[in-house]
Amino acid sequence: MRILLIAMPDTTEVIDFLTRLPNLALISLAGNLPGHEVRVLDLVLHKPRIRKPLEKALADLRPQVVGLSAMTFQFHTLLQVARYIRGFDPSIKIAAGGYHATLMAKEETAAAGELPLDFLIRGEGEATFRELIAALAAPEPELGKIAGLSYRGDKGWVHNPDRALLDLETIALPRRQARLSQDFYLLDLPMDVAETSRGCPYNCKFCSITRMYGHTYRRFPVPRIIADLENIRSLGFRAVFFGDDNITYDIDHFRGVCQAIVEHRLNDMLFVTQASAVGIAQNPELVADMQRANFRIVFVGFESMDPSYLKGVKKPTNPEINRRAATLLRQHGIAIIAGLIVGYPEDTRETVTKNWHLTEQLQPDLIYAQYLTPYPKTVVRQELLEAGLVVNPDDFRSYDGFNCNIRTHHLSCDELYRLLKRLGVKSNFNLSQIKINYFLRHHKGYFLRSILKAIGADFYNTISGRQRALKLDI
Which of 36, 207, 328, 361 sees the fewest Cβ atoms within 10 Å? Predict the structure, then answer.
C-alpha cells in the first residue's frame, strides 16, 4: 500500500530562528510498516508555502492512505491540510494522530460531519496504524477489533478501547530514509531527533504526558539506541536531539546510553537533550558521562525559582536543586537552556521580574520562557478555568506556550504578555550572560543572526501585543 505521512509546519518564531527539527513519530510509524511504500513529508521545512510540496508529494506517490500528525496548537492546520487532500483526491483515506487526537478524540468527533478525517489514532501509533493499514488492504476491513482506533462508522464515530502501552523492544527502528527531505538543523549543524525512553512518572499539573502514557517510564534497549544513532550518522547528521519525556528518570539507563555512545565512537556527533533539574543535581557522575559522550546543550525544566510556585504545580524541584543542576552543567562545559514558566495565578509584575532575574543568576545560555498554558485535559487547565483566569478557553491555535491565553489575579493577559517580551529583549543585552554564552563561542555567526531576528520579532510582539500568526498558502 502507498502511504504518505505528513507533519505540520506550525512552530513559533523563536524556534524558527534557531532550528528546524523533524517529526520523530512519523518515521517511527514508517519503520513499523514493513512491505509498504511509505514517504514522510515534514512541512516544517516548507512553511509557510506548503501547497507546492504537498501537491507534489501527493501527485508523485498517489497515496491510498495519508497519516497526519499534530500537537494541540497545530490541529487547526491539520484540518486545513486534510481538507486540501480531500479536494485533491476524495478516495484517499485520512488518519490523524498525536497528542491532541489522543486527548480530544471524543470532543473533535462530536461534530462528525465537519471533520475531514476517516480515522483517529489514539496513543502510541506504531501498532494501531500498522493494524489499520492491514485492515484497509483486506477485502472487508474489520476496524472494530483495532485497539486505539477511532473511525467513522455508519451511525457516527466509533471509539474502540484504548491500546495497552507497547513493549518498546518490539518497536522497529525509525525509517529515516522515508523522508522526502533531510534538511533539518540546529544553528549551523545538521540535526536529527531520537529517543531513549518514553513516559514520565511525575505528575506536574501543567503537563499532559500522563494522559498519553499514564505514570509509566519505559526504556529502549541500549543496542537499539546505538543502532539508531549509527543510522543517523550515516545520513550525514552531525547532531542529535533526544526528545525523551524524562531522560534522567532512570540514571543507570541514561548512563549506559552515554557510555555506549563513547564505546561506539559516536561522540563525534553533538548531543542535545531535555532533562530534569533533580536528575542532574543529584547525579554528578551522570553529568561527567554526558560530557564524555559529547552532550553539549541541555534544556532544563527549572520552571520557576519560587518554591511556592513549584510546589503548587507539583514540579519535583526547588531553587537549591535548580542552582545545583546549573552549577554541575556549567562545571562540565554543557550549555544550559533554562525552561521558565510565568503566569502563575498569584504572579505580579514584581514576582515575574524577580523570577526572571533569579533564573538569569543560574547563568543559562538561553532562557526559554513560556506562559502557563491551559493545555487540554491537564490539571492546571481545570484549576485556571475554575478560577476564571483563562481568557482564551477554546481557540487552541495559540496554545504554543509563546502566546498568552491566561491572566493572573494581578495582571491582565496583555500586561503579562508584554512584560515577558520586554524581559526577554533586555536579557539579550545582559553583558555577563553574553561573555559566557556557549552559542556565541561555538556558533557565533549563525547565533548572532538568529538572535537579532529573535530580538526584532520580540520588539514586534511587544508593540503589537501578540505573536505573528502563521499564514499558509492552502
Answer: 361
Decide: helix, strand or coil at residue 436: helix
| pLDDT for res 451 | 75
Same domain, 150 and 239: no
Is residue 112 scored above 60 in pLDDT?
no
Determine the structural domain holding residue 116 and report its residue range.
2-159
- Which residues does 79 contact at the CB level (< 8 Å), separation at least 6? 115, 116, 117
297-338 residue pLDDT tens:
999 999 999 999 999 999 999 999 999 999 999 999 999 999
Residues 25-77 have pLDDT tens digits of: 999 999 999 999 999 999 999 999 999 999 999 999 999 999 999 999 999 99
Same domain for 145 and 216? no
Residue 254 · residue 248 · CB < 8 Å: yes
Helical ranges in 17-139 per DSSP H: 24-31, 51-61, 75-88, 99-103, 105-108, 125-137
Distance CA 285, CA 244 (A): 20
CA–CA separation, 316 vs 371, rounded Å? 19
Q: Are residues 24 and 82 in the same domain?
A: yes
Q: Determine contact, residues 344/384, Cβ cutoff 8 Å.
A: no
> Is this model's pTM higher than 0.90 or not?
yes
Q: Same domain for 437 and 397? A: yes
The percentage of the chain sitting over the pLDDT mark of 70, rounded to a whole number, equals 99
330 and 426 assigned to the same domain = yes
CATH code for the domain of 280 = 3.20.20.70
Question: What's CA 251's distance to the chain center, in Å?
Answer: 22
CATH assignment at residue 59: 3.40.50.280
Q: Is residue 280 part of a domain?
A: yes
Are the CB atoms for 277 and 307 separated by under 8 Å? no
Please give the pLDDT value at position 73.
96
Ranking 93-102, 435-444, 446-455 by mean pLDDT, the lowest is: 446-455
How many domains in the chain? 2
3-state helix, strand, coil in the chain (%, to 5): 45, 20, 40
Query: From residue 291, how far is each of 121, 130, 216, 260 by CA, in Å?
Result: 39, 39, 28, 13
Contacts of 256 (CB under 8 A, 6+ apart): 222
Would you tell me how many other CB atoms lie within 10 Å of the CB of residue 120? 26
Considering the domain boundaries, does residue 469 fall inside one? no
